[in-house]
């Protein structure tokens, strides 16, 4: 069974106990956008802790306020995060986020969906 939701920033779907978040092309995440995406994500979970596969390959920019919010409030009901990175920009964004925001849950970056899913399986 698959449950899905989308907004102007991302698409969200739960498949086999993993939440897939795919950010849209050229998204710029500031604090209001981060708050909005977390609100939508939480409405999809319905109180369940889930591992998250987060595809950030198409994000254009994320500011400091959004990074801080996502690291703390954005970790609500998440037990692990796997970022999918590809371009130098998305890889740089994920490394910078991990180094500066220090999320309170296991969080790693991967270049393939398969690697990310292998990491997340231990948190299902």
From TrEMBL:
InterPro entries: DUF7793. This is DUF7793 domain-containing protein. Residues 12-124 form the DUF7793 domain. It comes from Winogradskyella pacifica.
């Amino acid at each position: 069974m698959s449950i899905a939701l989308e907004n102007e920033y991302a698409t969200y779907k739960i498949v086999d106990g993993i939440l897939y978040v795919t950010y849209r092309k050229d998204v710029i995440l500031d604090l209001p956008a981060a708050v909005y995406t977390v609100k939508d994500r939480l409405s999809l979970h319905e109180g369940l802790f889930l591992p998250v596969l987060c595809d950030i390959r198409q994000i254009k920019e994320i500011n400091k306020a959004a990074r801080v919010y996502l690291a703390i409030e954005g970790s609500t009901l998440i037990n692990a995060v796997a970022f999918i990175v590809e371009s130098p920009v998305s890889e740089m964004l994920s490394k910078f986020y991990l180094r500066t925001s220090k999320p309170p849950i296991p969080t790693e970056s991967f270049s393939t969906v398969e690697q990310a899913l292998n990491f997340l399986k231990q948190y299902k």
